[in-house]
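On clarity, I found the account of how folds are encoded harder to follow than it need be. For illustration, here is how one protein appears when written out as sequence plus structure tokens.
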Amino acid sequence: MPIQIVEGLPVIKKLEEERVYTIEKSRALTQDIRPLKILILNLMPKKEETELQLLRLLGNTPLQIEVDFMYTATHESVNTRMSYLQKYYVTLDEVKDRFFDGLIITGAPVEHLEFEEVDYIDELDQVMEWAQTHVFARMFVCWGAQYAIHYYYGINKIELPEKFFGIFEYEKIMKTNPLVRGFDEFYKVPQSRHTRIDYEKIHEVEELDILTGHPEYGPDIVSTKDLRDLFIFGHLEYDRNTLNNEYIRDLERGDEIQMPKNYFPNDDPSQKPIFIWRSHAYILFNNWINETYQNTPYDLTEIKENHKPR
């Protein structure tokens, strides 16, 4: 929420430079307030697990938020009953005439496929295009982020020699960017993927800023300069045991998988993992919500009216 201040307070200019939001009392008295409308395209197989992870983070705010979940109608879910999806989720056809303040597109376990081989990729393309005129701010996670970077900027993913799996440390690069305000200079984040995005290719795109990264692992958080698109390659939303559950799953199906790095105390899977990334997850989601809240139009139809094609 913006800070209410007295008109003409001298520090206002400095706060504006730091993108700390303020509102003068005279304007606050005339302001209309409404809930933020967030749409989540959940591409993860265990829908309820991902719902819980994201809603925990979105719910840690004094703002009222309305959340809708969406699924891809062209993909038959193996892990979630259709009756569940039809009851609690919507399709693009059902929301195509609505407008949203924010959209989150999750990761998906399809990294082994080329983008064009994913059976719902045409529908996802429709969502990506629709979101440009019907959603103010967009957040893409893991595979969702890799595909969004590819879709909008033509940057392809690169296959890794082995799964990038565990807890890894990244550095905050854009020190004053409001999306990473409150981050420590270094933070740790779960990673679970077989592919990466070329660091140098992102550097070549003038519209993109690398907010956090590592010289070996590459970027973790990237945004557009206008802050309306946020690409997160890690999994700050993961719970304490998510990597452990993935490790057990991979072992049970006979995959060649190494133990997640820097995860179990003393590399002992019998010990409880230490939860050392949750605070930064809350910070990132709160920053994204705040940035969206401060800039999204009250009348959401203005998104389409003011749309500038890429």
Notes: The first strand starts at residue 3 and ends at 5. Residues 137 and 228 are 4 Å apart (CA to CA).
